[in-house]
Design brief:
Helices cover 38% and strands 15% of the residues. It has 568 residues and is an alpha/beta fold. It folds into three domains: 16-158, Sulfate adenylyltransferase (Roll); 168-257 and 263-330, HUPs (Rossmann fold, 3-Layer(aba) Sandwich), CATH 3.40.50.620; 388-562, Rossmann fold (3-Layer(aba) Sandwich), CATH 3.40.50.300. Catalyzes the synthesis of activated sulfate. Residues 9-160 form the ATP-sulfurylase PUA-like domain.
Length: 568
């Protein structure tokens, strides 16, 4: 008899012959181009990773999941898996209509029958699923500012899986993993979920977890979407491959999971457990503050350190997978080995390096001791993250029209070019309007699009080791935050608020714009007929009244020095 964790799980794909036929038929259907997050969700729906879901949630299932972590039929499922679309697309649909779901290159991956269409209460979703309607939470911010306003639900018919050109040999569907475990004779499998590089403490922890559960080990890192600012998955996978041979080869394997994380703490832990159950695992390591997003807007952790373990324990039997709780491992100097913190001998010297401290050492090119990480891992991290003084970065000036942003930005550009070492690009508001956004007007939507374009170019400059200096008005906090997230994937983002008062800007009014705005000849003018969100926590605030330009630019240089971005 086959063990239940090794028997195949249902997939949503049709046969090869049916898929060829369906592809031709689907070409004439109304189609939706999926976002990166939706592609991750669709892949796990189709390959059985989200079993028992048969498609994107109906409204009844969505309500049950948000309120009680259960589908309408009572099945445990903690995370809303919905197809969010814009109002224009939703308005053109009929209930019962089939639509084609395409990737970002236009390839048809699946069809979906639209059975439900509704406008969700996103504040309620944020409160129930993430514990707070707080924009400091990356998934809440995504919910309010990126996700579409309308949700569609309905069953999915899978035509083909998304194509991945990277690490193809490391990507397995739930059924491929189950087949591998059957072939290897692995009856008990403990999964280790990670979105960070593996260091020696993780290796010790996973060794112990496998030994405790008397199980083989599956290292199952997430390579879909993680938290903004995380190490990119290419670097992480190279780090994992570098340490795989530190494990006994017959006891450990690694597979990549194309999951879009929500960083939902306790609910996410239960979700990860269900996903690992579908992949044939019998045990799952749940960490301290598992899938936590960090601090809320009050500076407190979103979730308690053991909330995820407690919620998982409550539902363990129903998930059908056993929890192995994460022991926080620390290095004991006198014993020259790792111990769980609760078993450290009395009076011993405990050594530990936090994630923040590791990032600081990498940024400043400082030594990372061998007791903490493997030399091969450190080498990979240094290749991707050179010292800060050699990384690209973006300086983003924001302030009213006439506040002096462009003048200070020009002075800063000249000072940085004088220093040399990295290419410097100035993305001034007027220059961008002329060369990148000449077709845009000044509506809120167009101004947002203009800033997003500036952010995109700045992120590319930063990624390639250059310095981007941006000087738009950028009146809206949400857009500035989105640009920050774009840039911080690749390097530092320094927001400089040029805090010249509106009265002073109007007094200067070199372009005569304020006069026209007061006369009503310019609509939606920042500070007059349109709001300006004053930055709450910029890296630097610069006063320009009675201060010369050279001094203002010098303040920025001193800030960049203090952050280690330019050599002192």
């Amino acid at each position: 008899m086959q063990l239940p964790n090794l028997a195949p799980v249902p997939e949503l794909y049709v046969s090869y012959e049916s898929a060829q036929k369906l592809k031709v038929e689907a070409a004439s259907l109304t189609s939706w181009d999926l976002s990166p997050r939706q592609i991750c969700d669709l892949e796990l729906l189709m390959n059985g990773g989200f079993n028992p879901l048969k498609g994107f949630l109906s409204e009844a299932d969505y309500d049950g999941v948000v309120e009680h972590m259960r589908l309408a039929d009572g099945t445990l499922w903690p995370m809303p898996i919905t197809l969010d679309v814009n109002e224009k697309f939703a308005d053109g649909l009929e209930i019962g209509q089939d639509i084609a779901l395409r990737d970002q290159e236009g390839v048809i991956l699946a069809t979906m029958t639209v059975t439900d269409r509704w406008t969700p209460n996103k504040a309620r979703e944020a409160e129930h699923v993430f514990g707070a309607d707080d924009l400091a939470h990356p998934a809440v911010n995504y919910l309010h500012h990126t996700a579409g306003k309308i949700y569609l639900g309905g069953p999915v018919t899978g035509i083909q899986q998304p194509v991945h050109y990277d690490f193809r040999g490391r990507r397995d569907t739930p059924n491929e993993l189950r087949a591998l475990f059957r072939k290897l004779g692995w009856r008990r499998v403990v999964a280790f979920q990670t979105r960070n590089p593996l260091h020696r403490a993780h290796q010790e922890l996973t060794f112990r977890a496998a030994k405790e559960a008397q199980a083989n080990l599956l290292i199952h890192p997430v390579v879909g979407m993680t938290k903004p600012g995380d190490v990119d998955h290419f670097t992480r996978v190279r780090c994992y491959e570098a340490v795989l041979d530190k494990y006994p080869s017959a006891t450990t394997t690694m597979s990549l999971l194309n999951l879009a994380m929500r960083m939902a703490g306790p609910r996410e832990a239960v979700w990860h457990g269900l996903i690992r159950k579908n992949h044939g695992c019998t045990h799952f390591i749940v960490g301290r503050d598992h899938a936590g997003p960090g601090k809320n807007s009050q500076g407190q952790d979103f979730y308690g350190p053991y909330d995820a373990q407690e919620l998982f324990k409550q539902h363990q039997d129903e998930i059908g997978i056993e929890m192995v709780d994460f022991k926080h491992m620390v290095y004991v100097q006198e014993k020259a080995q790792y111990y769980p913190i609760s078993e450290v001998p009395e009076g011993a010297t405990v050594l530990d390096i936090s994630g923040t401290e590791l990032r600081r050492r990498l940024a400043e090119g400082l030594e990372i001791p061998e007791w903490f990480s493997f030399p091969e891992v450190v080498r990979e991290l240094r290749r991707t993250r050179p010292p800060r003084s050699k990384q690209g970065f973006t300086v983003f000036f924001t302030g009213f029209s006439g506040s002096g942003k462009s003048t200070i930005a020009n002075a800063l550009m000249v000072k940085l070019m004088e220093m040399g070492g990295r290419p410097v690009t100035l993305l001034d508001g007027d220059i961008v309007r002329k060369n990148l956004s000449s077709e845009l007007g000044f509506s809120k939507e167009h101004r947002d699009l203009n800033i997003r374009r500036i952010g995109y170019v700045a992120s590319e400059i930063t990624k390639n080791g250059g310095i981007a200096i941006c000087a738009p008005i950028a009146p809206y906090a949400t857009t500035r935050r989105a640009v920050r997230e774009d840039v911080e994937q690749f390097g530092a983002f320094i927001e400089v608020h040029v805090s010249t008062s509106l009265e002073e800007c109007e007094r200067r009014d070199r372009k005569g714009l304020y006069k026209l705005a007061r006369e009503g000849k310019i609509k939606e003018f920042t500070g007059i007929s349109d709001p300006y969100d004053v930055p709450e926590n910029p890296e630097l605030r610069v006063e320009t009244e009675n201060v010369d330009v050279d001094n203002c630019a010098h303040q920025v240089i001193l800030k960049l020095e203090s952050l280690g971005l330019i050599a002192g």
